[in-house]
Design a protein that fits this description.
It is a single chain. The chain contains 10 helices and no strands. It has helices at residues 2-8, 12-29, 32-48, 53-66, 70-87, 90-106, 110-127, 130-146, 150-167, 170-179. Helix 1 (2-8) packs antiparallel against helix 2.
Amino acid sequence: QALAVADELHNVDLRAHVIQALVTHFYCRGDFQLARPLVQETLTQVLGANCDDWTLANLYYLSIRVCEDGEQARRYLAQGQPIANRVGDRWLMAVFTCNQEHFALEAGELSRGIELCQQYYQFGIALQDTRFILFSLLDLAGYAYRQADYELAASYCKQGFVKAIQTGTPGMIANFFNLQ
């Protein structure tokens, strides 16, 4: 209903904010087919309007999340990350760093992936964002395993396991438990 109101009012800024919540909802449900056209249409509208940079960067981030084409997702990253950095919002900078880390891993750039994951972890600590901390510890453990540094991997798993138990995050408890 909020989307219909935004469209009826021809308010691109309102639409962008509604879409952020709606696309995240669809993403969490795994319904990318509904999310993708909504975020793409809104991104196109925002690019044609004079919306704030935070909104634009967040729409690029959402575009990465629902994109099926790896090359297109990398283009969204290349377009959105400088905007996020310019805005200086640490949450936005963290999510772009996380995406950049995953692209580095896909490209086989292990050292770069580790460096970016450590940055992502530091964002998590600074923001006190449990999800960022847990996901980065899980990735760091995976990197350590890939390098056959089992002691370091176990250390990351232990930290993640303790944090997941403290925060009552069952899925992450299971992930870290399985890696130990």
